[in-house]
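hey can u check if this looks right to u? its 106 residues, i copy pasted from the old doc so theres a chance i mangled smth
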Amino acid sequence: VALEALFRERLEPLRALAAVADVRVIGGVGIVELAVPDRTAGYLAGVGPALAAEFLARDLLLRPLGHVVYFMPPYAITDEEARWALDQIVEVLTQLDRTGRAGDAP
C-alpha cells in the first residue's frame, strides 16, 4: 500500500475529533494539526511535549512541533510498521480528544 493512501485512510477520520483542527497528507508525510486556543498555538505549544512523552511511552519516537503532529517515516517502512505507528497516533489523539490530555497523567 502506498504511504499516501494509507495515511489518508487512517488519518482522515481524525477530522471528526474536536481536538483536531486539520489533517493534511502530502506524499509520505501525514500531518495532524490540533485545535488549541490561539494563545497556546505554535511551536512552543504545551501539548507538544505531552504528546511526545506519550508517543515515546508507546515506543514511537515522534516529536510534535508544538500543536502539529508530523509523521514522516522512512520509505523503507513496512505496511505493518506504518499501520502500527498510525494506530498509536490515532489512539493518543483520540484519548486527547476524550480526556483533554495525552497519556494517563492527571
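The radius of gyration is 13 Å.
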